[in-house]
Amino acid sequence: MKKLVLIKGAGDLATAVGHKLFRSGFQVVMTDINVPTCIRRTVSFANCIFEEEWEVEGVKAKRALTHLAALDILEEGVIPVIPDPEGVINEKLSFDVVIDAILAKKNLGTYKMKEALVIGLGPGFTAGEDVDVVIETNRGHNLGRIILKGRAEADTGIPGNIVGFSRDRLLKSPVDGVIKNIKKIGDRVIKGDIVATVNGCPVTAAIDGILRGLIYEGIEVKAGLKIGDIDPRIEPSYITTISDKGRCIAGGVLEAILMWENEIGNEELRMQS
Question: Which InterPro entries match (predicted)?
């Protein structure tokens, strides 16, 4: 019997985890909010909440509205993604592993369970207290590291550096309102180009590059919300493939699950589970 895994969140990093676990033989169910605000939609299974179906590097996902529909989708060999901000699915199905991949920088309601291994990604969780395992998500030497006691590194608030660019890569909403996209993911942009508007206010590119991510058109956004991401490397293949960061984090998750499943490695993990 394949282990059943719940992943809370279906953005690009959560998708990297789901993709690796699915390809490693696990059954994967993912959830997200009713109107996802993921940026890298081309590599986010959350996008199937808008599009009904989505595929990332050969792995397919499909929107499900109930736990019964999710079970049917699993039988098809596809990952079900459920709009479920309240986590109702966790009460309907019995999961072997629960992974909080929301990346909210705080715990929004994930806690240890007697019958399942519980993993938290990034800051906001304490391994050995509210979750069994924490996976480091901060770029650097410890990225993807398994933490069996304690917390991940604190959120720096500084976006990852790509060939010398950090904050300038990001596009943020200037006001509250509804977003209208002028450009699309994969488009080349030049500094000063209008990428989108929010209630008529332009959102312009601060650097040259390729538009790697852009929030779904027509949704309501708040001032200051990240709505887009420019990659200065201008490599089109990066738009449709899982990032190095995502693969590293996913590898840490897989290792933690196998430690728990095979009862090898660290005594603390065996005791916690």
Answer: Se-dep_Mo_hydrolase_YqeB
> Is 75 part of any domain?
yes
Does 54 share its domain with 175? no
| pLDDT tens by residue, the chain, 273 residues | 789 999 999 999 999 999 999 999 999 999 999 999 999 999 999 999 999 999 999 999 999 999 999 999 999 999 999 999 999 999 999 999 999 999 999 999 999 998 899 999 999 999 999 999 999 999 999 999 999 999 999 988 888 888 888 899 999 999 999 999 999 999 999 999 999 999 999 999 999 999 999 999 999 999 999 999 999 999 999 999 999 999 999 999 999 999 999 885 555 555 444
* Interatomic CA distance for residues 59 and 10, integer angstroms: 14
Asked if 221 and 173 count as a contact pair (C-beta separation under 8 A), the reply is yes
Residue for token digits 């789901």?
Answer: 18
Q: Copy the structure tokens of residue 53.
A: 């179906």
Q: Are residues 205 and 77 in the same domain?
A: no
Rounded to whole angstroms, the maximal C-alpha distance in the chain is: 57
The residue range of the domain holding 148 is 4-152+244-272
- Give the count of beta carbons closer than 10 Å to the beta carbon of residue 161: 11
Give 158: exposed, middle or buried? Use CB within 10 Å, 0-12, 13-18, 19+: exposed
